[in-house]
Amino acid sequence: MRFLVFYLSVFVVVCAENDEDIKLCQYENNLNLTKYTSNSTKVCGNSVNPVRKCCKPGFFLAPRRQCLKSNKTEPFTVQIYHRTEFVRNVSNISDFVVGILACPYYKLDSTPSDEFYIQETGDLYLPNAKLGIYVDNERYCVDDRDGYRYMGFLCIGKDQLQTNRKVNAIGMIISMPFLLMTFLVYLVLPEKNVHQVALMFYVLHLLLAYVCLVTINLSPHLDFCHAAAYMTLFFFVVSFFWMNVICFDIWYTFSGGRGYGSKKSSEKRKLILYTLYAEGLPLLHLLVVYLMDRYMDTDSIHKPNIGVTKCFLADGFPNLWYFYGEASISVIANIVFFIFTALKIRQVKKETSMLKQNESKRHTFEKEQQRPLVSIFYRFNLYLKLLLAMGVNWSMEIISWLVNWLTNEQYSYIWYITDFVNAAYGVIIFFIFVFKKKMWKLLQKRYYNLMGKPHLARAVTSTTDTRTSHYSSTNYSSADTHLTDRTTINDRTSAINRNNRNEEIPLHRS
Q: Count of H helices and E strands in the chain?
């Protein structure tokens, strides 16, 4: 339902804005027009070397590629130079070309390194850049800052974009074998539960998304650009939805939720519903993107423009509406599930601790003094694994994109680190779900059974820690998240009272 509401809001916003009647080269007589957005560019006169103004006369460029009405009454004036020597002022609209930059851009600061001069040729000169560079009017624009000296906006250089792409590509290439190993390990294990099947689908789609994105980033010109863009979008959205399923299932399990009917039929019914959600809604999303791209007005800033400037969605609002918007909703839901799950863990531990209060008196004073430090470390380790297992770290990817979009600043190197970590997320998944002794024993057992050596398989099983439940279709065993078995709090407390011994529940690790 929340995604249906999201799509309706996108439709309202898209339909509400139309820049067909905006005269880019004229002062606006319509008093009701206080802001606009446009992808159009207009040459306002016969000048051979026009200066590029971002917004139409009487407007200035604001964040999010919006042009806002200015309070200034005097005409927009630009100083023209020959290198760094002043030549004349230009204020006649016929000497300008008007249009917001189509590329990702950033604001030139008032620092010496960003000092610029508009040349007689219409180019922008940066004397303090490497060797001094000239930028043509397709890669820069200038505009008022509503009362301040006019500011310059410059397309992000190809080298900078390539650096970002290479950082992400390296992280994704590192992730790929780990994602593949995670998928294959869970594929060969028998009697997989819903959580494990969901994890398989998640890592598979994330792997396919990484393959597509690395292909796009490392191949400047693709013959199948549109197809690669749609596949990348689909696989990423599906992976977000499967992560959402995993987070919901973990929370549902800790809450003691049970299905109807037998356990096997209940698990099967739940898996079907999860698959319809995680695969069906992304297909619907892809259809919406296709229809928007095909039938939306060409000049609309909300048009996806897949494969136009790059083999993905266009920068700005298309990225918001058709990718990061859905990712944000999914991540917010995951954070909510994480908080509820963490609180449930805390509640279970507290109730279990109360039941064992008498038994704890047997411990020595020294052990009682050491217990708080062990408990703090264990809780931190448990919640950190749960946090990473639920994919909450993806929020950093969304925040980095949002900050760069809203501020129009150069790509900050701090985001290289977070983007690399997210790209290398497959390594984290592998170490959480696969790289542990319990999983190695299960693989050994599976291998011996396949090789016709059941006696060796039984020997492996007999050496398994008896406090860890067997791998079954209805338990969250230590082969998954080291979290808990699917039993309610009442089941735990009654078991403790019945056995009347100091037995650790699966939430604790020895």
A: 16, 14
What token pair was written down for 130?
A: 């490497």
C-beta separation of 183 from 203 below 8 A: yes
pLDDT digits (tens, 9 = 90+) for 238-263: 999 999 998 898 888 877 766 555 66
pLDDT tens for residues 22-74? Answer: 788 888 767 778 888 887 899 998 888 899 999 999 898 887 788 888 888 78
Q: What is the CA radius of gyration of the chain?
A: 29
Q: Which long-range contacts (CB under 8 A, 24 or more apart) does 127-132 make?
A: 127/83, 127/84
Q: Please, what's the b/e burial string for 296-323 (b: 16 or more CB within 10 A of its CB; e: otherwise)?
A: eeeebbbbbbbbbebbbbbbbbbbbbbb
Tokens coding 231? 């596949």
CB atoms within 10 A of CB 420: 15
Question: Where in the chain are the domains?
Answer: 22-155, 159-492
Place of tokens 């000049």: 299
Residue 345 burial (CB count, 10 A): 18
Q: Residue 215: which residues within 8 A CB-CB, separation 6 or more?
A: 222, 228
Amino acid at 307: G
Q: Which residues pair with 42 in a beta bridge?
A: 98
Residue 386 structure tokens: 């749960």
Q: Which residues does 212 contact at the CB level (< 8 Å), separation at least 6?
A: 228, 231, 232, 235
Instruction: Name residue, tokens 């008498």.
Output: 358
Total-model pTM: 0.63
What phi and psi values does residue 452 have, to the nearest 5 degrees? 75, 35
The hierarchical CATH code for the domain 22-155 is: 2.170.180.11
- The third-level CATH classification (topology) of the domain covering 159-492 is Rhopdopsin 7-helix transmembrane proteins (1.20.1070)
d(CA 94, CA 25): 8
CA–chain centroid gap for 114, Å, is 31
Tokens, residue 420: 């690399």
Beta bridge partners of 88: 80
Q: Provide the 8-state DSSP code for 500.
A: -
User: Within 436-488, where are the H helices?
Assistant: 437-450, 454-462
Rounded to whole angstroms, the maximal C-alpha distance in the chain is 94
Q: How far apart are CA 74 and CA 91, in angstroms?
A: 10
